[in-house]
Structure formats: C-alpha cells, structure tokens
Design goal:
Bound molecules: iron/sulfur cluster
Low-confidence stretches: 1-22
Radius of gyration: 22 Å
Number of domains: 2
Strand content: 15-25%
Largest sheet: 8 strands, parallel, barrel
CATH topology of the largest domain: TIM Barrel
CATH architecture of the largest domain: Alpha-Beta Barrel
Number of helices: 17
Strand order of the largest sheet: 5-8-9-10-11-12-13-14
Structural class: alpha/beta
Mean pLDDT: 89
CATH superfamily of the largest domain: NADP-dependent oxidoreductase domain
Number of strands: 14
C-alpha cells in the first residue's frame, strides 16, 4: 500500500471518515491508508479504536505531545474512535483526550465514555456524572455512553438507581447518542442484563484465551443471540497474548509468519461478526502504528489460523494450568465462600504469562480478592470436590496456589 498523505480540504461524511478544516479546527491530514470499518447503530466505526486507559506517560504525567501525535495519526487513518472512562489514568484520561480532541471538528471523531456504576448511589447520580464527564471531555455529547463495569458488586447500583432509565433520558436530551454497558460478570448475569432492556451495544472482554479457558464464548453467544452489537475490550488479555510462551510463539511464527502476536490476536477478535470495534489500550505511537497497519491491511482469519489460535490457547493453558472451566458448581457448597474459580483463573493466567510484569499482576490481582475468600482460608472439608465435574482435587490445588503466591511474594520483596 502507498503511504502518501494528502490533505482533504473539504467534504465530510457521517462518522468522520473524511474531513476538513474550518471553524479554527485542525485540518485532518488524511492518509490513503484507511482502517477497515463496520457499521454500528447509526454511525460507522473503525474496527480498531484507541482505548485511553494506558495513555503515554512522561515523568508521572500524561505525555500530551505523544498523545497529540497519536490522535493525529489515528485520525489520518480513520481510526477515529476514542474510549475513555471516569477513573482511567487516575481520573485524568477524560481531560487529556478532551484537550486533544477539541482541536478537531466534533463530528470527525467518535467518543465513548462510561458512567462509573460503583459511584452511582442515587438515581440523580447518572446524569450528574455524565454532565461532569462532558465538561471534562469538552464536548456537548458522547457518541457511546455506557454503564461502566456491571458485575456482582455493582449490579445493585445499576438496578436500584435505575441507571438504564437515566441513560435513556440522556439519549432523549441529545447528550448521548447510543447507550450500552460494559460487563465483567458471569453468563447468567449477562443474559439477564442484556434482555431486561433495549441496548444499542454492549462491551465485553473477548480474546482467544478467554474463549478457551474462561467463558468469553458464552458471553459472545448471548450478545449474538440477543442481537446486541459488541465492542471488545482486552483483546490481547492485558498483554498476555503478545508475550506468548516460547512454544506458542514458535507455533505462531511457523503458521503465520506475517503476523505479529498482537496482529494475530486482534485479527482473531475481528473474525467475530457481531464485533464492531476493538479497543486496544495503546501507550505510544509505535503501538498505534502497528495496530493501524493490521486494520489497513486487514485479512480475515482462515479456518487454519483459527485452529492455531485454539492450539496456542491450549499451550498457554498446559503450562501448568489447572483445568477448571469456571462452572462455579463448587461455590454452591463451599461453607467458607472460597472464590475457587477466580483463584484458579488467576493462577492459570500467571502460569501462561511471560510478560515482564506477570508476577506483579498475579500477586496484585490475587490480593485484590476479598481476604476471606482466598486459598489460605480453605478448611479442607472436601465438600467442593463432590461437585466438580472436572474431578479436581480442589483443596490440594488451592494449597498449591497459596504456596505459589507466597513464593512469588517472597521473590518480589
Ligand atoms: S475444601 Fe475448601 S474450598 Fe472446598 S468446600 Fe471445603 S473450604 Fe471450601
Ligand atoms: S467445580 Fe471444578 S471446574 Fe467448576 S469452577 Fe469449581 S473447580 Fe472449576
């Protein structure tokens, strides 16, 4: 593909694929190389989007110069979807992306933001927070606005404070265009949430590892059957899928020599037809260029490549992973409320993770579990074993995880 840039001085389209100067706003130097797009609700979205959770940092602050360059490059290549949230980068992400985007005509970019369900304690909070967020982002409306992170801890805030009904009011008033939710619960909860209202979209964690070892396949299937478009978060499993174990990396190189680990993971997600955009938290211009390149020269995955993804997931899992399917049957009988599937899930991610921060992430996430539900609180009664369809010796495995956590903590201290 040619890389010649040129300036479009006039013309516009819905979704901002082609744009212009005027009204004191930045000209968009539009490249001939445009990322592929999919139609989503009433706007076109690029298949790859800039997630603003891991913005470039310099001396402990957001590097606005680098961010400016990233936005300029993204806009030039049609990757004009930006996703922020109230608490990203210690609450500074919205201000930063708003400051950069204000240089562009509002209709040239798609901005998504999220209402933090954990902060919604009264019915009035949703609209109050949205208005605050619009000010921080310096815009008059959000294209996509969602209940942020529905899970077992926030579902009562969402329901009791009628967050959906408040989002509908925001939509009627033109302050948001499309309404949805991001989700971190189990399939049963997703089924309930997705069917209790009319949503424009949902945002789910989907990648080829979660598809195999957790329940991303079930979550996607629920959204697909409900006809709700999907925005994907964590397509590379927080970096796990671009830091593959050696055996998996070799397998990928052998079968897909033209792919990077990241492009392979992103293309796998893009093969899911109900996915309309894929959020990738990018921290520098180089990462953005690589991801844009994947979707400028986009190739759908072949069946053979799908099979390779399946094999790689198995390799990651086989690196000492526990064959828990997260069915949660054990939870029904545990008298101590030990969070068995979550503990095994974190352990499995750690065992298959070559990322430099893997130890830190394992201990950090493990210690984020409620203390009374951790592995060392198991009393070895064995009741859970009777319920496990995988016939795992759960107390023994919990002891193994506990030992590993303590060993890793020792190395880190
Ligand atoms: S053995 Fe441990 S995890 Fe299993 S039911 Fe008893 S307390 Fe719970
Ligand atoms: S019953 Fe077994 S497979 Fe199911 S969540 Fe518990 S440990 Fe995992």
């Amino acid at each position: 593909m040619k890389r010649r840039d040129f300036i479009i001085s006039s013309a516009l389209t819905l979704g901002g694929t082609v744009l212009l100067s005027g009204c004191g706003k930045n000209e968009i130097k539009k490249s001939e190389d445009q990322v592929v797009r999919r139609k989503f609700a009433n706007i076109d979205t690029p298949l790859i989007a800039l997630g603003c959770m891991r913005l470039p940092m310099l001396n402990g602050k957001i590097d606005m110069v680098e961010l400016d360059k990233m936005v300029e490059y993204a806009m030039a290549h049609g990757a004009n979807y930006f996703d922020t949230a109230y608490m990203y980068v210690d609450g500074k992400s919205e201000n930063a992306i708003g400051e950069v985007l204000k240089k562009y005509p509002r209709e040239s970019f798609i901005l998504a933001d999220k209402c933090p369900a954990y902060l919604v304690k009264t019915q009035a909070d949703t609209i109050r927070l949205c208005e605050e967020q619009l000010k921080k982002c310096q815009v008059k409306y959000f294209d996509n606005y969602m209940v942020h992170n529905i899970n077992k801890n926030t579902i009562s805030n969402y329901r009791d404070n009628k967050m959906y009904e408040e989002l509908v009011k925001l939509k009627k008033d033109g302050l948001v265009k499309n309404i949805g939710f991001s989700f971190h619960g189990d399939p049963q909860m997703l089924r309930e949430v997705i069917n209790e209202h009319k949503w424009d979209f949902c945002q789910l964690q989907i990648n080829y590892l979660d598809w195999e070892v957790v329940n991303a396949d079930e979550l996607y299937d629920i959204a697909d059957k409900a006809g709700v478009p999907v925005i994907v978060m964590e397509p590379l499993r927080g970096g796990v899928l671009c830091n593959l174990p050696t055996k998996a990396a070799e397998r990928l190189k052998q079968e897909c020599p033209d792919d990077t680990q990241a492009s392979f993971g992103l293309r796998w997600v893009a093969n899911k037809k109900r996915v309309f955009t894929i959020l990738s938290g990018m921290s520098n211009l180089q990462q953005l260029k690589e991801n844009v390149n994947t979707f400028v020269n986009y190739k759908a995955m072949t069946e053979k490549e799908e099979q390779v993804a399946h094999e790689i997931a198995k390799i990651i899992q086989s690196g000492g992973a526990i064959s828990c399917t997260a069915c949660k049957y054990c939870l029904e009988v545990c008298p101590r409320g030990i969070n068995i599937p979550a503990i095994f899930g974190l352990y499995n991610m750690y065992k298959g993770n070559n990322a430099p921060n893997a130890k830190f992430m394992f201990v950090y996430n493990y210690n984020a579990l409620e203390e009374s539900t951790r592995a060392d609180k198991c009393i070895k009664c064995g009741l859970c074993n009777k319920n496990c369809p995988q016939e795992l010796n759960i107390p023994e495995l919990l002891a193994q995880v506990d030992k590993t956590v303590k060993e890793v903590e020792k190395i880190m201290n």
